[in-house]
Here is the input.
Amino acid sequence: MNLGTNILLFEIAIKISNGLVQNYFHIQTKGRILFTFVCYFRDMKKHSTKKIESYKPDWTPENAGDEFAVRILKGQDSSSSGSRAVGGKRKDLSVSQYVKGVLGFDRNILARTITLIESNNPAHYKTAQEVLKHLIPFSGKSLRIGITGVPGAGKSTLIESLGMYLIKLGHKIAVLTVDPSSTVTKGSILGDKTRMENLAKEKNCFIRPSPSGGNLGGVTRKSRETITICEAAGFDIILIETVGVGQSEVSVRSMVDFFLLVLIAGAGDELQGIKRGIMELTDAILINKADGDNEKKANIAKSDYNNALHYLQPATAGWRSQAFTGSALTGKGITELWNVIKKFEDNVKQSGVFEQRRKDQSIEWVFRMIENTLHEEFYNDEKVQQAIPILIDEIVNGKITPTLAADKLLGIFKE
Ligand code: GDP
Here is the structure.
């Protein structure tokens, strides 16, 4: 890897791991430049056969490779009330119209049902829960695959490659994303259809960007419910993409059957935000971009990660997580990756781990939602909001202990 590439990736990893608000704001600022760049590139693609090299964003270090380009695109906008997003000028549908439409694989109604789920309007929430109640009996039959990795690792290219491969095998693919950055920037660095151009054109594929607005808990709930809807519509493989920022990976792990970590050889663990905890969540590691000059480095990385995985607790009981090499760009290793996933599925279904994990995930979901709701209610409570600065002042001036301050705040909340 050249120095310029290091600098670019380092910058991204630090932004992602050092506090979301501050750092994503920074990405957002640059995001404008990137967005302009992408539009420019796409436009140029129509009229020119020139390669992407000519159209690097102006902040890219001189000798950085194209393969580390990061695209930041406008996210799915779900307004706070959700009313426009759900119905627009169209008439709201009845519960049975939503249910029939989803079960009948009506893509328009499918999209409207997901918008209903994503709405923050209490009336929509009620309808959405009614719709879900009717769809749950038809859900659960897919294989849910989580894919994580830092921006630039090649996740969307991989989803495009793997997705096209699976569609040729006769599968129906839904691509969803869990993107906590969207809650801060109201934009998305994941799941935009333009990042998966061929897949987006397939009738057996449905791509849905991360909902924006709300906290990670809210995004997670919406994503989980979207899985239910997509399964009821007949999608048998759900790919859930998330960016490697720690917390969102834990959330995605708790909603998928198989979890894949996508890495780039030679970028270094620190730069890729790899922590032991994240490795312990993964069922396989794909060292992507194992093509051209990079192939040798990718093979070395594969051995290194296999050594590391050997000493870690496996993510799934009875399954040995392993590292593989592949190239999302050339398609090399895609068949092998799918074989690994199929082997995993057979293994966990036979051992009962699959079913048990799904049950555990449903139970965990209930308690995560309770925690999330309590958390929101606590911090939205007016009296709590008034008391917090006063108590903080007392703590820093040594007038009260943190424990007593917490007791007081909880007391105010419960009043
Ligand atoms: P994401 O941010 O993780 O979704 O990464 P992308 O899929 O957008 O890929 C970032 C850049 O890496 C793009 O320019 C891709 O064309 C490039 N890329 C992705 N996969 C490969 C690969 O297997 N080999 C090479 N050489 N480049 C790749």
Remarks:
- The chain is about 55% helix and 10% strand.
- The CA atoms of residues 127 and 398 lie 50 Å apart.
- Residues 1-88, 183-189 have pLDDT under 50 and may be disordered.
- The first helix runs from residue 3 to 17.
